[in-house]
Specification:
The chain folds into two domains: 2-151, Putative xylanase like domain (Putative xylanase fold), CATH 1.10.3670; 155-291, putative xylanase like fold, CATH 2.30.260.10. By secondary structure, it is an alpha+beta fold. It has ten helices and twelve strands. Strands 5, 6, 7, 8, 9, 10, 11 and 12 form an eight-stranded antiparallel sheet that branches. It has a two-stranded parallel sheet with strand order 1-3.
């Protein structure tokens, strides 16, 4: 009888080991790297974040400095219907800059982190519930990105804490209305899934601060270096215009971002208050987010 029990236990242990191995394989994160020596570049960013120390936001800010000089390039619309996560540390848009910096910062909190840890954090920030199941799982609308990452405690919406916050509303259907610009949407099933997701953002309420408030003392006092700034445009066609990190220089907020104007990642030469005046015809206001530890 004891021999049968031992064999049974060994069988169960073997099945559990096999199941765990399958689960680990299923959870392996695949990535499509653009650029040379991705492992070396990622290791360098992790070292920058680790050497900086401090909060996740402080570490992310150091990584943003390290990425300064990279090219601006918007490529998310070219994502396939299914496939590995795209990673390009040489060229990125504003949200991708934030994702790369936050992923390196979060991964660096654990000693001995490697490239796979960075990729795990990046996938956790970029995709709904942290799972890459294809084109529609990527958080393509900023409102969706904020809602999902706030729910999973990656960020906190600070806009509600700022004096004078107001609301606007948007119907987010820009992607399916411009189906021809998204190759993945040539697939009917992918297109229909995207339409279903957009239905959750019909007349979506968005908190924001009016653009002129960025220069007010009562607002600036509540901002911190490396808070995330989301610029809201006046057009009702989309839910944001630009995104990056706030930098306080001599008491005035500036924006470090992947700039479509300069074509590079870097700190704008003028403070945000001046930039928003210059672009008053485009900009309605802004949202402020903070990375959580």
């Amino acid at each position: 009888m004891n021999g049968i029990k031992i064999k049974f236990c060994c069988l169960i242990a073997g099945l559990l080991f096999f199941a765990n191995a399958l689960n680990a394989a299923a959870q392996e994160i695949s990535a499509d790297f653009k650029g040379n020596e991705p492992e070396g570049a990622i290791s360098a960013l992790l070292a920058v974040a680790r050497n900086q120390g401090g909060t996740v936001a402080q570490r992310a800010g150091a990584v943003a400095d390290a990425l300064s000089g990279a090219d601006f390039k918007a490529t998310a619309d070219k994502d396939p219907a299914a496939g590995p996560m795209s990673v390009n540390l040489n060229a990125m848009d504003g949200i991708e800059l934030i994702e790369y910096c936050a992923a390196a910062a979060k991964a660096s909190l654990v000693p001995g982190t490697q490239m796979r840890d960075f990729l795990k954090e990046l996938q956790g920030l970029r995709y709904r519930r942290g799972e890459n199941t294809g084109f529609t799982s990527r958080l393509r609308y900023v409102c969706d990105w904020i809602a999902d990452n706030a729910y999973r405690n990656n960020i906190r919406e600070m806009t509600y804490d700022l004096p004078g916050n107001v609301f606007t509303s948007r119907t987010l259907d820009h992607i399916t209305r411009n189906r021809e610009n998204y190759p993945a949407l040539a697939d009917s099933a992918t297109f229909e899934r995207m339409q279903l997701l957009e239905m959750g953002y019909r007349v979506h309420k968005i908190p924001y601060m009016k653009r002129e408030s960025i220069g007010k003392k009562g607002v600036i006092e509540l901002l911190k270096d490396n808070d995330i700034l989301i610029i809201i445009d006046k057009s009702k066609d989309n839910d944001f215009l630009d995104a990056g990190f706030i930098r306080l220089v001599e008491g005035r907020p500036y924006l470090l971002h992947a700039s479509e104007v300069s074509g590079k990642v870097g700190l704008d030469p003028e403070p945000l208050s001046d930039m928003m005046k210059l672009r008053a015809k485009e900009i309605a206001g802004y949202r402020v987010l903070r990375l959580k530890d």
